[in-house]
Amino acid sequence: MSYVITDECISCGVCADECPVEAISEGDDKYEIDPELCTECGSCADVCPVEAPQPGE
Ligand code: SF4
Ligand code: SF4
Predict the structure, then answer these.
(1) Which CATH number fits domain 3-55: 2.30.110.10, 3.40.50.970, 3.10.290.10, 3.30.70.20?
(2) Strands 3-5, 53-55: parallel, antiparallel or unpaired by DSSP?
(3) What is the structure's pLDDT at 19?
(4) Does residue 22 line the site of ligand 1, with CB under 6 A?
(5) What's the confidence (pLDDT) of residue 17?
(6) Of all atoms in ligand 1, which is nearest to the CA of residue 22?
(7) Where are the domains of the chain?
(8) pLDDT in tens, 30-56
(9) DSSP per residue over the chain, as a string?
(10) Which residues line ligand 2 (CB under 6 A)?
């Protein structure tokens, strides 16, 4: 499993700088997480101003 970024994302880019495995990149409408790289550390959720990254189900 991996974290996923919801549509709440405002593309500020803060999370991408915090991800220890560089799993986050800018997508067309919002930032996206590569599920193959994400370790579910939660750092992106901690720094996001709008709580867009959420644990996957
Ligand atoms: Fe990166 Fe951790 Fe967020 Fe996964 S949970 S995208 S590893 S910062
Ligand atoms: Fe989107 Fe939150 Fe990441 Fe900013 S920190 S790019 S709002 S997910």
Answers:
(1) 3.30.70.20
(2) antiparallel
(3) 98
(4) no
(5) 97
(6) 1
(7) 3-55
(8) 999 999 999 999 999 999 999 999 999
(9) --EEE-TT-----HHHHH-TT--EEE-SSSEEE-TTT-----HHHHH-TT--EEE--
(10) 5, 9-15, 30-31, 47-48, 50, 52-53
